[in-house]
Each structure stands twice: as structure tokens, then as C-alpha cells.
Write a structure and sequence with these properties.
It contains ten helices and eight strands. It has helices at 18-34, 55-65, 80-92, 111-120, 138-153, 170-177, 186-193, 216-230, 233-261, 269-302, and strands at residues 5-11, 43-48, 69-74, 97-100, 125-130, 162-169, 197-202, 309-313. The protein binds uridine-5'-diphosphate and magnesium ion (MG).
């Protein structure tokens, strides 16, 4: 008996890409079903993340035309990561394995076959890893690759050049369900789930229609989320910095006393004003970083739901 695959696709204002995406995904899935690799209960599950356009109507239409399509409608826009989690948690109840990908098919769907093969070979998590970023704009490539480097430097372990294109078995999803954090950064949490993992390489293409839902502002917020939700290294660095600055001031003090004893008092205005500014800056920076973590703690203690589902359409 072949296993059931759910392909989970978060969608936010994606009416421009949905017709093409659904067509290509359906071809892929029916191909795998007819060759006996997947159960015919397999589905393509679109998650509508509170879109302002006709995305949900399109999803409902697709479902009416073919039960291979199913849909999850969120109560409002909750962001990519939460929408993805909502889809994964809904699919977990019905599927043996789930693949997540973006609605714009920038992730080559050709990698699906290999992911499924690796699943049958015993992998619980298969990461889709980008082999090159030739098609990304210089700016996107630069910021994205810098992002992975900084993340790793700051102690947040992520798989290099892996976004949210991956296969997870039901067992891995059940593990993921036990991570209760509200500050959701899936590509950092999934590696913590463990089990047997594998990777599949693919080329990332361009978005074929519509525009990116990740402008620079959202990317920066996402990077901040990733760092502060996975690592406390910045806090430790601040402590280190504090020690360092303190040591420097002690050395300066000794130096001044020695100079004074030798009878050569310096006119200290420039150095004084510099250090006032430098130390003021460091204090503000440190307070900011600490505030960032306290903000996270505040949100976590509230334990707000990460998503609310308005309705699910799926023929089982
Ligand atoms: N997305 C979402 N909610 C949001 C923003 C984005 O569900 O608030 C989805 C979007 O529909 C797409 C995926 O997240 O399927 C990735 O977005 P996009 O392709 O715009 O990001 P990029 O590839 O430019 O980084
Ligand atoms: Mg995209």
C-alpha cells in the first residue's frame, strides 16, 4: 500500500499564481499516484493566510472541480510561518508525509519525486536545498546568503540554503507539534526534531507571477525572529562587551593616575566626550537587545494561539 502525501502550500494574495500552481502540482501528484508511488488519498492543501484578494474563492473552486485539492482558511493573516504551521498541523491528521512549498513554485517541484523516494528509504525529514541562486537578484542573493551566515554565527543552527521546502513524515510532524513556541521560525525548529534526515538539491527559479510577499522590512523582521527565537548568544555577547568596556576603563584609570603622578595632566575633553558617547551607545544597544528578548518572553508567556482555522475543505 502506497502512503498518503499532502503538499501544503501557504497562500497570501496569490490569485495570480494559483491557476498555474494548481495545474502543475496536480500533474505532479497524479503522475506519482498513477505510477503507484503514492496513495490516491494524496492531496494538495492550500492554506489561505487571510488574503485580501480572491485566493480563497479560487481554492474553493479548485476543490469543487477536483477533490485532489483541499483548503484551509485561516481566520486572518498570520504570516507565512504560522500559515505553514496551520497547514502542517491539519495535514498531519490525514497524511503519512507532508511536503511544504511556496505558492509561487520557485522551488522546483521536480525534487518532489526524490523527496518521496528518500521518505520510503527511511528518512523522516528531507530538506530541499538550493544548489545555486543564479536566478535570484543580486540583492536577494546577497541578503539571503548573508542571513544564513549571520544566523549560524549567532548560534542559530539552520540548514544552509534551505528555506521551507521540505518533506516531513507524520512522526516528525508529531514531534514538531510538541514545540509550543509562539515565536515561530520553522527552519530552525525542524532540525531540533531530529530522526533520520536527508537532503535533495534543486535549482530555485523565479516567481512566475505576482510579487514577493517578503519585502526587505519583512525579511529583516524574519531574521530578527530567527536569531532571537533560537539563540541567546547576543545576550552573552553583551555581557562580554560589558566586561571588555569595564576593563578598558580600569586601564584608562590607571593610566591617568600614572600620568597625574608624573605631573602631566592631559586636557581630557576629547577623550571624555568620545567615551561618553561610546558608552552611551553601548548601553542603548545592550538595552535594545535585552528588550528584544524580554519582548519574546512576554509574548511566550501569553501563549496566544499561533493560528485559528476558519474552515477546512477536504474530502477524505
Ligand atoms: N505568505 C503567507 N503569508 C504572508 C506572506 C507570505 O502565507 O503573510 C506565503 C506566500 O503566499 C508564499 C510564501 O509565503 O507562498 C513565500 O512568499 P514569497 O514567495 O512572496 O517570498 P519570497 O520567495 O519572495 O521570499
Ligand atoms: Mg517566492
Amino acid at each position: 500500500m502506497a502512503d498518503i502525501l499532502y503538499i501544503v502550500v501557504p497562500c497570501y494574495n496569490e490569485e495570480a499564481v494559483l491557476p498555474e500552481t494548481s495545474k502543475r502540482l496536480k500533474e505532479k501528484l497524479t503522475g506519482l499516484i498513477s505510477s503507484g508511488k503514492l496513495s490516491e488519498k494524496s492531496r494538495i492543501m492550500f492554506v489561505n493566510d487571510g488574503s485580501k484578494d480572491r485566493t480563497w474563492e479560487l481554492i474553493a473552486q479548485l476543490h469543487d472541480s477536483d477533490p485532489i485539492f483541499s483548503g484551509v482558511n485561516l481566520s486572518r493573516n498570520r504570516g507565512h510561518q504560522n500559515a505553514l504551521l496551520a497547514g502542517l498541523m491539519t495535514a498531519k491528521e490525514r497524511a503519512d508525509m507532508v511536503i511544504s512549498m511556496d505558492a509561487d513554485l520557485q522551488d522546483d517541484i521536480g525534487a518532489v519525486d526524490e523527496m518521496v523516494e528518500k521518505y520510503y528509504a527511511g528518512c523522516d525529514i528531507v530538506y530541499g536545498v538550493r544548489s545555486s541562486r543564479k536566478k535570484d537578484s543580486f540583492f536577494k542573493r546577497f541578503t539571503a546568503e548573508g542571513f544564513y551566515r549571520v544566523m549560524n554565527l549567532l548560534g542559530a543552527e539552520t540548514v544552509f540554503n534551505h528555506a521551507d521546502y521540505r518533506l516531513m513524515s507524520r512522526r516528525a510532524l508529531e514531534g514538531l507539534a510538541q514545540f509550543k513556541e509562539v515565536n515561530l521560525f520553522l527552519r530552525g525548529i525542524v532540525p531540533m526534531v531530529g530522526y533520520t534526515t536527508g537532503t535533495v538539491e534543486y535549482e530555485r527559479g523565479e516567481r512566475f507571477a505576482g510579487e514577493s510577499k517578503y519585502p526587505l522590512k519583512k525579511m529583516l523582521a524574519f531574521a530578527m525572529e530567527g536569531i532571537t527565537s533560537l539563540s541567546t548568544k547576543p545576550l552573552r555577547w553583551i555581557t562580554g562587551l560589558g566586561f571588555l568596556v569595564f576593563a578598558v576603563s580600569i586601564i584608562m584609570l590607571i593610566y591617568s593616575i600614572v600620568r597625574w603622578a608624573m605631573g602631566a595632566t592631559t586636557m581630557g575633553w576629547p577623550s571624555l566626550i568620545c567615551s561618553v558617547w561610546a558608552i552611551g551607545g553601548l548601553i542603548l544597544l545592550s538595552l535594545g537587545v535585552i528588550g528584544e528578548y524580554i519582548g519574546k518572553i512576554y509574548l511566550e508567556t501569553k501563549g496566544r494561539p499561533r493560528f485559528l482555522i476558519r474552515e477546512v475543505i477536504d474530502d477524505e
